[in-house]
Each structure stands twice: as structure tokens, then as C-alpha cells.
């Protein structure tokens, strides 16, 4: 295993090809495997080796934290494609007892702990976003009949008075005048309300307060949205 000579263009090309479908040298989080290979590279790979350059810049951002990254740093010959031999001649070294090391021992366990921590962080972020998601606001569409005192009532002024009523959760809509007999017309006006903020009792109280123009108010239609 290895990348050839990582200080040569050929070795960097091997590294670039190796990272084409990987984010890290080993596993799914930055580890000592990345540190070992990073320290063997003499500098940023050229721009045409985009995968190697992306990896290099990412691992470089952990420079102050590299000692705390999970895993055990091993020789370069323990990383990379199986059919390439390491010839860099520098970097991490193995102990003489390296052949007896369980490659799936503590290194694997440490990565598993790191993966578990990341998963828990992602779950916490998801729950936080879920909690902040705005609750569904219950709304209703209401059609009101507002009746004047007689046929001499100024209906334009009556409507102006009704629309002057403003409240959080109240939106006035279309309106029309509907004949009721003897030359008298009533104002039929639509509004949309948030159920927790505006009720028909409040609307009736405020509309009938314009007693110079309004005789009464009735709810002609009430539909949940």
C-alpha cells in the first residue's frame, strides 16, 4: 500500500485519483491517517489535481487541532491504494511490533466514537430546527352582512368605517352592496382572520360601535381555511 513518492508529481497524481471518491484517507471524518499523509506532502497540490487540493486545504484547516484527531498515526505504507508502494521516504514511522497491531482495534473504535458524536450533533441540530418550525396558524374566512339604518345612510362612509378596524390577524377582502328592500342596501364584506387573535364577537362589537351608520351585523358565512 502507499502513494509512491508524495513529493513527486506522480505520487500526487496517485493521491488525487485515490481521493476522487473519498473525503478522507480513511473513514468518514478527519483522522491521524490524514495527518500522516498531509505531513508527507511538501505543499499544496497543483490546481489541476482538484481532489488532492481540496483534501489538502481541508486538512490544513485542522492544523491546530491535528493532535486531537482520532486514530493512530501509522507509516505511509499503511494507507493508499493496495497496488502502489510507498517510496516517499519520510513521514510517520511504525514501531517494530506494527505487524502485531490490530488494524481494526482502537483506531476503529475511536473513529466509531467520533462518528457517534457527529451523528448526535446532527440529530440535535435537526431537533432544534424542528422545534423552531412555526406552528400551523388556524385561519377562517368570514362573510359579514352589515346593515344600515335606512336608505339615506352613506354606504361609502359605512364601508370606510368598517375597513378602518385594524387588528393583528385581520385582513379585509372584497365587498359589495346587496339590496334588501325598500331601497335599502346592506354591505357584504369578506375578511380573513387568525382564529386565536380575532373573533366574530370582537368584530361585531367594533362594527356596531359606528352607530351613526350601522344598525346591525350578522355572519353570513364562516369557513375554516
Summarize the structure.
This protein is of the alpha+beta class. It has helices at residues 9-18, 32-40, 50-60, 106-132, 155-163, 200-207; strands spanning 139-148, 170-181, 184-194, 214-224.
Spell out the key features of this protein.
single chain; coiled coil; Alpha-Beta Plaits; rod-shaped; alpha+beta; 4 strands; about 220 residues
Count, helices = 6
CATH class membership of the domain at 139-224: Alpha Beta
State the CATH architecture of the domain at 139-224.
Answer: 2-Layer Sandwich
Low-confidence spans = 90-109
Inertia-based shape: rod-shaped
CATH topology of the domain at 139-224: Alpha-Beta Plaits
Major β-sheet strand ordering: 2-3-1-4
Note the run of SSEs as H and E: HHHHEHEEHE
β-strand number = 4
SS-derived structural category:
alpha+beta
State the separation between the terminal residues, measured CA to CA.
66 Å
> Radius of gyration, Cα only, in angstroms?
37 Å
Tell me the CATH superfamily of the domain at 139-224.
Ribosomal protein S6/Translation elongation factor EF1B
Beta-strand content: 15-25%
Helix proportion:
25-40%
User: What summary fits the major beta sheet?
Assistant: 4 strands, antiparallel
Mean pLDDT: 84
Helices and strands, with pairings:
Layout: H1 9-18, H2 32-40, H3 50-60, H4 106-132, E1 139-148, H5 155-163, E2 170-181, E3 184-194, H6 200-207, E4 214-224
Antiparallel strand pairs: 1-3, 1-4, 2-3
Helix pairs in contact: 1-3
Task: Provide structural commentary.
By secondary structure, the protein is an alpha+beta fold. Among the domains are: 9-78, no CATH class; 139-224, 2-Layer Sandwich (Alpha-Beta Plaits). Helices cover 33% and strands 20% of the residues. The chain contains six helices and four strands. It has a four-stranded antiparallel beta sheet, with helices on one face. A hairpin with a 2-residue loop joins β2 (170-181) and β3. α1 (9-18) packs across α3 (50-60). The longest helix is centred in the middle third of the chain and has 27 residues, at 106-132. The protein is rod-shaped. The relative contact order is 0.13. The model is unreliable at 90-109 (pLDDT under 50). Keywords: Coiled coil, Elongation factor, Protein biosynthesis. It comes from Pan paniscus. Residues 139-225 form the Translation elongation factor EF1B beta/delta subunit guanine nucleotide exchange domain. One of its GO terms (cellular component) is eukaryotic translation elongation factor 1 complex. This is Elongation factor 1-beta.
Amino acid at each position: 500500500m502507499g502513494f509512491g513518492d508524495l513529493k513527486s508529481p506522480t505520487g500526487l497524481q496517485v493521491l488525487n485519483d485515490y481521493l476522487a471518491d473519498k473525503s478522507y484517507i480513511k473513514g468518514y471524518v478527519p483522522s491521524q491517517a490524514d495527518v500522516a499523509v498531509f505531513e508527507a506532502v511538501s505543499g499544496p497540490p497543483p490546481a489541476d489535481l482538484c481532489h488532492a487540493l481540496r483534501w489538502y486545504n481541508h486538512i490544513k484547516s485542522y492544523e491546530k487541532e491535528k493532535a486531537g484527531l482520532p486514530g493512530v498515526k501509522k507509516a505511509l505504507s499503511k494507507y493508499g491504494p493496495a497496488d502502489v508502494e510507498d517510496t516517499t521516504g519520510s513521514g510517520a514511522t511504525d514501531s517494530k511490533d506494527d505487524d502485531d497491531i490490530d488494524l481494526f482495534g482502537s483506531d476503529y473504535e475511536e473513529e466509531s466514537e467520533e462518528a457517534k458524536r457527529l451523528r448526535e450533533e446532527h440529530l440535535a441540530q435537526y431537533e432544534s430546527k424542528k422545534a423552531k418550525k412555526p406552528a400551523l396558524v388556524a385561519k377562517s374566512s368570514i362573510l359579514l352582512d352589515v346593515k344600515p339604518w335606512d336608505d339615506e345612510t352613506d354606504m361609502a362612509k359605512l364601508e370606510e368605517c368598517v375597513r378602518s378596524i385594524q387588528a393583528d390577524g385581520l385582513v379585509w377582502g372584497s365587498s359589495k352592496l346587496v339590496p334588501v328592500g325598500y331601497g335599502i342596501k346592506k354591505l357584504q364584506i369578506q375578511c380573513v382572520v387568525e382564529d386565536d387573535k380575532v373573533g366574530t364577537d370582537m368584530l361585531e362589537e367594533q362594527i356596531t360601535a359606528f352607530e351613526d351608520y350601522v344598525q346591525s351585523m350578522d355572519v353570513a358565512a364562516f369557513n375554516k381555511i
